[in-house]
Amino acid sequence: MSIEVPITALATRSRYLKLRDRASFEFAVVSIAAAVDKQGHRVRDARLAFGGVGTQPWRALEAEEVLRGKDLTQSTIQAAADAAVRGAVPRQHNEFKIELLHRALTGLLSEFGG
Q1: What pTM was computed for the model?
Q2: CA of 22: how far to CAs of 15, 18, 45, in Å?
């Protein structure tokens, strides 16, 4: 499975973060692709996709909705990260990924000016 990002105004401000155990390992423990379209501080649209934390990549639709129409503040970023991991069900030996994803998303969204 793959995720294609079309060339749009939204994709002009995007980031990708790949966290690995070691530089020698290519597989991501957690990865995040994010695109945020802002007007001033307000988020007009957002796309968030995660990899490395499930059996396939997925979009974080609830977290995107938390961001839309709001100023990109630390409070809004925190709420989006909370929404992204809400209901996550860890498997044996990977519970740490929930907190890692939450922290990584908070940091990545802050790069957009939050």
Answers
A1: 0.86
A2: 21, 11, 34
Please give the chain's pLDDT, 114 residues, in tens.
777 767 777 767 899 999 988 766 778 889 999 999 999 999 999 999 999 887 888 899 999 999 999 999 999 999 999 999 999 888 888 889 999 999 999 999 999 985
Amino acid identity for residue 54 in this structure = G
Alpha carbon distance 84, 54 (integer Å): 13
Q: How far apart are CA 114 and CA 107, in angstroms?
A: 9
Structural tokens at position 67: 């961001």
- SS3 of 62-111: HHHHHHCCCECCHHHHHHHHHHHHCCCCCCCCCCHHHHHHHHHHHHHHHC
